[in-house]
Specification:
The protein has 219 residues and is of the alpha/beta class. The chain has helices at 30-43, 50-63, 93-103, 134-140, 164-176; strands at residues 14-23, 72-79, 107-110, 114-116, 141-143, 152-160, 181-190, 201-210, 215-218. The chain is built from 5 helices and 9 strands; from the N terminus they run βααβαββαββαβββ. Helix 2 (50-63) packs across helix 3 (93-103) and helix 4 (134-140) packs across helix 5.
Length: 219
């Protein structure tokens, strides 16, 4: 495994990302409540629902022209590790999602060489202001040695909030694969400050940027 230094991210200043659904942690109404149920299904990698979520992404990409440049046979999917180092041989949530994307024909193959080497606090349960920083994520992620070079790497995760994990994961991959085009996709994006969401399915393509001190997600 490659070693990491204590520096902050420097190579990835702008990460293109896509998402399909909305997750509203505190919103009111039936759609917001449904988004919280979606979160539970994603976090438990519910095998009854992951195929439906992946099929929705595939349909949007094929029929509506969404996510140009994100999917295709040339794409190698990289599942984003969770907050804890994963036991060898046991799939984690993002790996289950990535495997379903692969079954739906959204990519050519999967590479599970991005690893968490030390635990970090879970963002969902950490108090405000105590969530892991981009720097902390960078210091606890590593990419396994690989002689191959991949033209397009797509990081896949369940939910994106600010985008700190995805930005650090992209920075880690860039060190291992400097010539690769690196993008990210989350099944859902968090809408923390919205009182009410109007739609559960809200596909988007946007950017996660490093502003010099933190990750900034747009939209």
């Amino acid at each position: 495994m490659s070693s990491r230094t204590s520096r902050g991210p420097a190579l990835i200043a702008d990460l293109a990302f896509g998402a399909c659904y909305l997750y509203s942690p505190h919103g009111r109404g039936s759609i917001a409540s449904g988004s919280r149920l979606l979160r539970v299904r994603l976090k438990t990698a519910d095998p009854r629902w992951l195929p439906q979520y992946a099929a929705r992404v595939r349909a949007l990409a094929a029929r509506s022209g969404r996510y140009p440049g994100f999917f295709g046979p040339q794409v190698v999917i990289v599942p984003v590790p969770g907050s804890q180092p994963q036991a060898q041989g046991r799939p984690w949530v993002a790996e289950c999602i990535a495997a379903e994307f692969l079954r739906q024909g959204l990519a050519g193959r999967m590479w599970s060489g991005l690893r968490r080497i030390r635990p970090v606090r879970k963002s969902a349960t950490a108090p405000q202001g105590r969530r892991p920083s981009v720097r902390e994520h960078c210091q606890t992620l590593t990419a396994e040695s690989c002689a191959e070079q991949f033209p397009l790497l797509l990081l896949v995760d369940d939910i994106v909030s600010k985008g700190r994990t995805l930005l650090a994961a992209a920075d880690t991959l860039r060190q291992a694969f400097p010539a690769s085009d690196i993008r990210a996709f989350a099944v859902a994006r968090t809408m923390s400050l919205v009182d009410r969401i109007e739609h559960l399915v809200a596909p988007c393509e946007g950017h996660i940027r490093w502003d010099g001190s933190d990750a900034v997600r747009e939209p």
